[in-house]
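Changelog-adjacent note: as of this version, every example in the card shows the full chain rather than a window. The one below runs 540 residues end to end.
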Amino acid sequence: MSFPDFTPTVPVFIRTLAARHGDKTLIALEEDRISYAQADARSASLAEALLARGAGKGTRVGILMPNGPDWVVAWLAIARIGAIAVPLNTFFQARELAWILRHADVDTLLTATRFLNHDYLETLEAAAPGLRSANGAPLFLPELPYLRRVLVWGDGGRTWAESGPAAIQNAERAHSDGGLLRAIEEGVTPSDPMVVLYSSGSTADPKGAVHSHGAVISHAYNLVSRRDVESDDIIWSPMPFFWVGGFVFAFLGGMHRGATLVVEESFDPEKTLRFLERERVTIAAGWPHFGQALASHPSRKDRDLSALRGGSLPGLLPEDVVPADPSRRPNSLGMTETCGPHTWGPTGILPESLRGSFGSAVEGVEHKIIDPDTGETLPPGQFGEICVRGYNLMQALYKTEREDTFDDDGFYHTGDGGHFDENGVLFFKARLGDMIKTGGANVTPSEVEAVLMGFDEVRAAYVVGVPDPDRGQIVVASVVLEPAAGADPDALRQRVKAELSAYKVPRHLFIDDAGALPFTDSGKIDKRRLQDLLAQRIAG
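Full-length structure tokens:
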């Protein structure tokens, strides 16, 4: 197993990399670029500003920012004082944001003013109306009882918010010698919790995976040691840092190597192709549908992407790097709870014997396959639930009892179904539950159903994931209306979009009579049959 040659805590991590890579660019968002040394210096100043406002070991600090230098500085500052970072989904609507802030007990929030079409200050006021009458920190809001302060990057203009850049400048004047910060950093250990990553962010099935400094930094290093990433690489990834794929796999992996990560505000095939050409990107990492969108765009033929040599995007990379047939591509299986991949496959085109496989256990990780009904451990070749334990496993699901999270042997039951062959190669089949995984994001059907059923004209709503070649699954809904009620499917979809993140909005919404839907003898909707029915409609 590969481990870094330094103590795996964030303060040691950033100081070590700043010493090794200095003025080399760490991350660039368009023209906003910072070096490894600048990330160290700026995060130290923000860390001192947080200390001056009462943050310290164990304080939960939210980050509501897009990928870029500000996000990186915020995360480094939080973690280097032993506080716990809570990365927040930049697509959240007010109800989702309110739920996460409250569930995570966020004390301090670091936020951009806006991103794309999101005005975060307005969203926060909708999430916690008491903010509108608040006059600066400390805040005391019944809606968010633990929130004490909000620091804003950008033109805020709210009495309840403080300027983040101004706070940094004041800290630089007050704590010029850095002695307090260094003393605090020395008290941060690999076992300390560093981040709470939310995999779904839903009120129906909240999952906040608590990961330690040691697990995150060591696992990112262990994974990048199996990849062809070098210090002179320029990595592009559209995966957001608030999800484990963007944070641990794309960002921290490259950071360990001293590489440069370049990001955009949004993904647009034509604009992104120009960006990849201009930045001379060498590695492009993301979910398959990104590569397919880029490869099929008419302007692809006009772009010089000769610097591109590796990554995970089909169509954009040669067949011997990423085969067009998904079942012949190298693959891995991972989740938020395991800090990313817990299996890892070979590179190149998979042989016929390994078609559809998901690699073998990452070193330091153990698996077992159990009968989901009896809990009996199954032999190789038999399908069951995949269970995992190891150094990379989360410390806890936040606000969930340990005995409800891990079994007596310390294994986490993933809810994924599959089997290992005699050689220890995993063949993943499907989620055992009804979680929908679309374009790398998890969607809980009950959350979407609850929003639809909140509409007066909707009597019942049933949401399933339908297989999709590009996104893995797409969200599809069947709605039963109240008697004599009328509704337009597109209008219902737009109303859902006002309540939930865009990736949770059904791609297809059908209005049905209850009698036309498949139910079990006990009167429950048969979602497997419903999934097949809706897939047939979409296909035909």
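Structural remarks: The domain at 436-539 is CATH 3.30.300.30 (GMP Synthetase; Chain A, domain 3).
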